[in-house]
Protein: DUF1479-domain-containing protein
Organism: Agaricus bisporus var. burnettii
Amino acid sequence: MVSIPTIEPGDQVYWHCDVVHAVEGQHRGLGDSSVLYIPAIPLTLNNAHYLRDQRDNFISGLPAPDFPGGEGESKCMGRGSIEDVKSVQGRLMLGFEKFGGSSEASKEDKEFFDRVNRILEL
């Protein structure tokens, strides 16, 4: 592994998720640091369970389930809410809309979407 050189406030570091990486064993900064992870994942029943839990944490202003602990933004006034998500696609990806597929979806696909929507309690 190659260490990242000293960075200053406002600097950004990018890496590919397939490249091995690690974080320092001790955070020595005075404030929080953030990592933005943009995954591309398939819709599976297991991922639907995660999406449900992530949606519930979003509503409460808490960190995502894979980053548990802390109050997140739960006490922040004016934090993002579902009302800020204007597109159907955005609400779908956050677990606020039913998955349905097209009218041409196979019987198996429709049954799968029904199972996902039950997990999401929609």
